[in-house]
From TrEMBL:
One of its GO terms (biological process) is methylation. The lineage of its organism: Bacteria, Pseudomonadati, Pseudomonadota, Alphaproteobacteria, Hyphomicrobiales. Its EC number is 2.1.1.199. NCBIfam families: 16S rRNA (cytosine(1402)-N(4))-methyltransferase RsmH. CDD domains: AdoMet_MTases. It catalyses: cytidine(1402) in 16S rRNA + S-adenosyl-L-methionine = N(4)-methylcytidine(1402) in 16S rRNA + S-adenosyl-L-homocysteine + H(+). Keywords: Cytoplasm, Methyltransferase, rRNA processing, S-adenosyl-L-methionine, Transferase. Specifically methylates the N4 position of cytidine in position 1402 (C1402) of 16S rRNA. Its main location: cytoplasm. This is Ribosomal RNA small subunit methyltransferase H.
């Protein structure tokens, strides 16, 4: 899946800065001699910090543009850093030949370098092709915007972006594309702004719609769920998993993954209590958010949340989407 969901600030936002870095390092401490999988390598911020703290790192990313960052760490930390091209949803298979693993870190956010590269089509603040594909393969955002019927498009924007004005936006998009296909990011952003307006001080009106399209293009919720269960299969008793998310839909999935009872039906106190299944994750830490000092340094961290837990000795579960609160697009096949 690569990195995603970091909110945009301005066209002049700085280089990618790993969020909640001190908290992530603390989640795996002590790091000396440990073997950590960085499942969402990006620009390598977490990998570098883990390596500097004495760990060995196996990094994974499907974005071809990360190669220079991986090459730099290979040169600097020869023997302790390995890069594997692929998606973190397959992290257990991708790292099978690299021995036992002590921890996995997943940063479920689009990196600043992706936002800042206009040609990637992630940003509603920069002119570029309406693309949004992490790997550069498959269906693009332009394909969805120009190909979906109004109802299907509205349902997608609502389910994956929590956009309350999704139907009006979809109507404006369908009307606009009757004249000519919508091909660029700024063109789509202008249509959305025309549809729902913009109040001073509010987030850009295209924020939620761009989030929804990016999630759909890259099957990000599927990737997230598959990646969480892959980490559960990979880690043995005592292994640690740390996950950073950037919006409520992702955080809900991670929260319920660590504690399945959060997503289960409430039990009546008037009925016999059923026995819950064995816990796969223990010592699940309270959710951590960035402090004021970090937010002043890095405004893009403002919606980030870190959740971490320790693997128990219970056998890994089969992949299961139900109970995790994964959004579903109504009417989708």
């Amino acid at each position: 899946m690569g990195k995603r969901s970091v909110p945009e600030t301005s066209p002049n936002a700085g280089p990618h800065i790993p969020v909640l870095l001190d908290e992530v390092l603390a989640a795996f401490a002590p790091l000396e001699g440990k073997r950590i999988v960085d499942g969402t390598f990006g620009a390598g911020g977490y990998s570098r910090a883990l390596l500097q703290a004495g760990a060995s790192v196996i990094a994974i990313d499907r974005d071809p543009s990360v190669k220079p960052f991986a090459d730099a760490l290979l040169a600097e930390f020869s023997g302790r850093f390995t890069f594997v091209a692929g998606t973190f949803s397959e992290l257990d298979a991708l790292t099978a030949e690299h021995g036992s693993i002590d921890g996995v870190v997943l940063d479920i956010g689009v990196s600043s370098m992706q936002l800042d590269e206009a040609e990637r089509g992630f940003s509603f603040m920069r002119e570029g092709p309406l693309d949004m594909r992490m790997s550069g393969e498959g269906e693009s955002a332009a394909d969805l915007v120009n190909g979906l019927e109004a109802e299907a498009l509205a349902n997608l924007l609502y389910a994956f972006g929590e956009e309350r004005k999704s139907r009006r936006i979809a109507q404006f998009i369908v009307a606009a594309r009757e004249t000519a296909p919508i091909e660029t990011t700024l063109e789509l952003a202008r249509i959305i702004e025309k549809a729902i307006g913009r109040k001073p001080g509010d987030a850009h009106p295209a924020t939620r719609s761009f989030q929804a399209l990016r999630i759909a293009v890259n099957a990000e919720f599927d990737q997230l769920v598959e990646g969480l269960f892959a980490a559960e299969r990979l880690l043995g008793e005592g292994g640690r998993l740390a996950v950073i998310t950037f919006h409520s839909l992702e955080d809900r999935i991670v929260k319920r993954f660590f504690d399945p009872e959060k997503g289960g039906p409430a039990q009546s106190r008037h009925l016999p209590q059923t026995q819950g299944e064995a816990l796969r994750w223990i010592d699940v830490a309270k959710a951590r958010k960035p402090g004021e000092a970090e937010l002043s340094r890095n405004p893009r961290a403002r919606s980030s949340i870190l959740r971490a837990g320790t693997r128990s000795d219970a056998p890994a579960r089969a992949v299961k989407f139900t109970g995790l609160g994964v959004p579903v697009v109504r009417g989708a096949a």
